[in-house]
Write a structure and sequence with these properties.
homotetramer; 427 residues; alpha/beta; Aminopeptidase; 2 domains; six-stranded mixed beta sheet; 35% helix; Amidohydrolase (chains A, B, C, D); Peptidase_M20_dimer (chains A, B, C, D); Aminobenzoyl-glutamate utilization protein A (chains A, B, C, D); Bact_exopeptidase_dim_dom (chains A, B, C, D)
Chain lengths: 427, 427, 427, 427
């Protein structure tokens, strides 16, 4: 067991060293592919993984180029990069046992964040020398641990494939951050005939390691989008009247978006997180760029916010005679875990002695694009759940000093294999 | 001369007693008509005076009814009231000498203001017992003096008609306040073939009585309008989301109207003078009513402001999903007096010994709908001017204690007759 | 039983005829006093009922004068009016049995609303001739029924006083609407040593008559206040720079109040219900008056909103160099009913056959100043609950056609007497 | 003459190649110094030129470092850089003839702009190979020509110094752009005893080369400043209430700054040219940075705008509980040229045959910190003027394709020497 634990820790640390932000996971995709290649899976890459046109929130070409060069330098073969270089990252692995049985799917997200990792002496990745080698990017949300869990599960299924039945689909998904990547996988059809769908997150709740939650409540539905106002510049001294002021259009939108009426039906959120406007002090600004998100306790409440937002943004543009473009970046619905899977998980892990506290559900209180996959599975009459593996968080997710309690890697791995075993017997 | 002076003062005081706000000048119109009836003029009333559809800023029916009853009580015959009762007030008097000569026109405005006259012991109309008998209405802008001047001029022309040549048109115009009445007279065509057009104001500049200005500069073009936002009410506790907030639409419009960019081409103004919104503390407001005006140093600058205002008001309505109505109230262009008439006036009054200081021009700095008449005259190749007869103002125009220096009545009367005489000889 | 039912209906209809808005309940107070006078209670009036300085949201003197004249005309003796004429309305009745036992208190609110009652043929008070005789005022929230219940309970206690123990305090409270009156009673100390406190509302939930809820959840804490901005007027054409614009200060406050950040801890509300600003189109507005309310799921959440509101209002005044006054109008905390009293009520009414459906709690979702009394009782270690007596609502509370289902009068009366009897045996 | 013309063109092109933005004119200062060194002037550098603490709008240290390295590479000696490296750039050259006579001063501004010069084939500096070698910086306002004129004047005075009388002060001033540099020279006292002060601009009015204006009207007084709001970040989903939103503070300031009331006394301007706020979509923004300017037809009107701006900015910070810092960047008063110098210039150039059209004054309509020098000279009873040397502008000042009509170099040079000669004879 100690050996397995070490193996998992090594895998996680390897991925921790080369975090890549969403849709640029060229090295990550390659390393996952390399790990799965020797096994009995059919592997899918590039346009076979996702529907290119359904991706949102893609980075600029210059980012792709930089990541390409970095991957070449790392040693990813040029032929491999052909599959992924335009942002078609991620791997899907399928295995058909040939025996009748359920279709089991699991999803592991693989992207890093645009955060510069702390080099503080108190930060273990620094002192134990597995800190990010990609300056300005970091696995600050634990997706390195998710990859690790997924690869272990893949090996386990491969190893026991003669004792298993039905079909297995393991999804290593790009660009979960800003809830951008799931949609393109869903639209490709991968979730259309899944019977049991599992996914999970390490951490989140600040509870002792050993705690497992069989399901999750309180996903906030969310829409992420950018807004670009385009007006007309003019000399601010000579003829301010000739300008169509984009800075004012943006300011007006920001204020009024925050004034959207609260909803009697439940919690809602709005945020204009950033705004960049104008080119010079004595010029009427002819550009403003805003990054915005709406949220709601339900998909309907989020939709209420997004609809109001669109109205307000258009009116702000009209008021200052600007053109305006709303650029979709990401989207996640709310979701409800299947009660049957809560019971199944609880039964499955009955004898798992890594678990010290087993809960039916814990609250999430944020957004995850896995909800888009869960929604499709449920629509197609499958069942879905999202588990949590909490640990004591010294620094929260997305913090430059965030770190995994690596003991949860083994815990998570064991829970997934327990579930597979249980479903084989009880489906 | 003392006799004439007294006669003018008596006339002015008679009109001062029954001020009537714009388009309700039923008694005033009747008294002017009565005074002109015995003379050689052709008189025009009602729809012959103005184009009904071109009037703006009409009062409510209830105001018409109240004024009707008041006029009946005063003694205006019912048959006469038929001409004016729907707001078609004012009189036009024409006289054709039958001899070839120029077409001379003059305009005198006749309406009072919705101001309650002061009953203070220091206020002469109170102590000398000619204070307004119409509570809440007052001749606080001197139009009682303008009527007086006009009636004197009418008598003078009538008396000397055998020595005169050409044609005369005397316009006693309704509803100058809020620049509402002139347009409907212009649209009727009365100014289309005028050769010489004169009008004037008593007071305005705070200079010694005896000062005369042959012309006026710095008329501000102006547009007056009301805005009514109509939204949807909702319980502010239970479902604020269900409302379309008119109070916020109005507030938004007010702020952004004030933020219209200054114009490099000259002075502009905007004011939202009043706003009334909402029905109760715990209800989302479903109504907002705003009284607004724009101004500009030129007609184009005022138009710039009004165009921007319309855009902003529509966008404010859109932002809070309100319907909106823009209700025109009044309009005045800018104007430039004809240089030829400055010379003519100066020549004409050369021997007028009531004048102590004769100026080419003085600045107005406000709006007057006479500019609409001047504009038409100039377009048709006539000449026009607007004279000022200043006096020392203890209280400004529109103040509850405003009063005329009655010595200017004779001055103004004498200047008008000098001009008529001059034009007869020099045209 | 039919006789009692009729008696209750008659009482309710009597009070329905002369609704009086908060702090002007001169006739109402007199009639309650008259009804209690023959009984064994000690009665308190005027400054003995409430702490004058703790009242908020008082009407203008002119309203007091009008109500005084009306009461005189109705037949209220001048000597009696001395107690109430300055807004010190309401009655408190106490009875000490002389035997050891608990202190029982109940509160009945007595004010009407500034709503004009419907004269529609479908409206029973119209057709059965007990419609409001006070034009513009109406018992549209059922407080006439509350008074009725309270008076019946008073009679019942009086009648059985020899079989009862402990002390009784019956509070007929003024000015519940806009949550204004309770505070002044609490500050007088009346709730400081109460063991069991009961209050209730007729209607609210739209459920079949016969339903009783032993307690109520989801009171929204609320603060009601007015805001008066005072700036400086100036001529909008001549020198707009000289003004301090109150209309803009008010507009700015309204927009930014609506933009107060949502709270992660639960529901909040804000509403600027009305705004009146400015005096004329061409004058910079020097006054703005706003009616505002904040709410929160808890007292803390409401306090968060009110604190933010104060900051914003001050800053809006500063931005346009206005003075500003925040005028408190009313206040209600949230409240939680005592679990022990839920059990007590359920036991007490076990054999009450008017009840068809007995519930532990129902949700309120609005604000009530009774929460201020409950808070004080709980602080002093007493127990408190607030019951609901729903019926099927054709028109909601505060609607011009609101009407009571009069069958609930007997139901409510019987529940209160059941409770008194139960407490006598079980305290 | 052709030789002189060529010499001037060469000098101008040399300076055109190494434009340096305000306070980083290390190479420029060195080259001016080198040119003056052989002459009879006393030269002042560094803290002798300006009062360090009176400078505003200094660049970051990193900019100084970059410019230092660039100057080293260019060949400026380290010892020389000691004088200027902390932003104490510019040169002052004085010459005392020893003979009684007036104190003549002239000012030439030397800085470039942060604009990338056009490499278009139609742009002469590109095709004739004197385009800026400093990417992102450009002499797009003609200061290269100003330096050229100043150096020629210096040589001329030096050469004829035995025929001249009185004293001469030639000011090569740093950082005119954004009106930042003049103040520090004035505060050092250099303008305190000047009798005749001359300065000028090439271009500005789009008139045929050969036109000279002896004076300039319509300088706009202006204040340039930056504003930094500092709030508090918070997770926009979890607890938006915990943030103090700087993006909203900035937006609010921008809107309300534009709503400052127009001034009855004359033209005013305001512009928020740029705003940068926030760090991420799902974080409440805790920083906003705005670049702002106010202007006014007079110093008082500009002061009115700046005072209002300060009030609004503070209130915007208060409204969203932000700290705020107002960072001065530059300042220029208005100015009026001395009538006596208009006459003097006209007399002086009477026989100058480069001039095709001589005007008393032309309008400027923008801001120049030379006005701060003129103001000091006039206060001390000296006389001052600012001349214009228009030419036909294909592209306006500050445009990436702006270019001088090099024929005006000789014209300007000749006018300055004419003036010196005239003053010698006529003072």
């Amino acid at each position: 067991m100690t050996e397995l634990k070490e193996q998992l820790i090594n895998t996680r640390r390897k991925f921790h060293r080369f975090p890549e932000v969403g849709f640029t996971e060229f090295i990550t995709t390659y390393e996952i592919y390399k790990a799965l290649k020797p096994l009995a899976y059919t592997l899918y890459l590039g346009d076979d993984v996702l529907l290119r046109s359904a991706r949102v929130g893609l980075p600029d070409d210059s980012v792709f180029e930089k990541s390409y060069d970095r991957a070449i330098k790392y040693g990813v073969p040029k032929e491999f990069l052909e599959y992924v270089k335009e942002g078609t990252t991620g791997v899907i692995a399928t295995l058909d046992t040939g025996r009748p049985g359920p279709h089991f799917a699991a999803r592991f997200d693989i992207d890093g964040l645009p955060i510069t990792e702390s080099e503080d002496a108190s930060h273990k990745p620094k002192t134990e020398d597995f800190i990010s080698l990609h300056h300005g990017e970091m696995h600050a949300c634990g997706h390195d641990g998710h990859i690790t869990t997924g690869l272990y599960l893949a090996e386990y299924i491969n190893k026991h494939r003669d004792q298993l039945k039905g079909r297995f689909t393991l999804i290593f998904q790009a660009a979960e951050e800003s809830v951008r990547g799931a949609k393109s996988v869903v639209e490709k059809g991968w979730l259309d005939d899944v019977d049991y769908f599992f996914s999970s997150h390490l951490g989140i709740r600040n509870l002792p390691a050993g705690t497992v939650s069989a399901a999750t409540t309180d996903f906030l539905a969310s829409t992420k989008f950018d807004v670009k106002f385009s007006g007309k510049s003019a000399h601010a001294g000579v003829e301010p009247n000739a300008g169509n002021n984009s800075l004012l259009a943006g300011s007006l939108a920001a204020l009024n978006l925050n004034a959207i009426a609260r909803h009697g039906g439940g919690s809602t959120r709005i945020n204009v997180g950033t705004m960049t406007a104008g080119s010079g002090r004595n010029v009427i600004a002819d550009q403003a760029y805003l990054e915005i998100e709406t949220r709601g306790e339900t998909k309907e409440l989020n939709q209420y916010m997004f609809n109001k937002a669109k109205t307000i943004i258009q009116a702000a543009a009209d008021m200052y005679e600007n053109d305006v473009e709303i650029i979709p970046v990401g989207e996640a619905p709310d979701a409800e875990c299947s009660a049957e899977l809560i019971d199944a998980v609880k039964e499955a892990v009955k004898n798992n002695n890594h678990i010290t506290d087993l809960k039916d559900t814990l609250s999430f209180g944020a957004s995850e694009d896995v909800t888009m996959m869960m929604e499709r599975v449920l629509e197609k009459n499958g069942k879905a759940t999202y588990m949590l593996f909490p640990f004591e968080l010294e620094y929260g997710h997305h913090h430059p000093k965030f770190d995994l309690d690596e003991s949860v890697l083994l815990l998570a791995a064991s829970v997934y294999t327990d579930i597979v075993n249980y479903l084989m017997k009880n489906d």
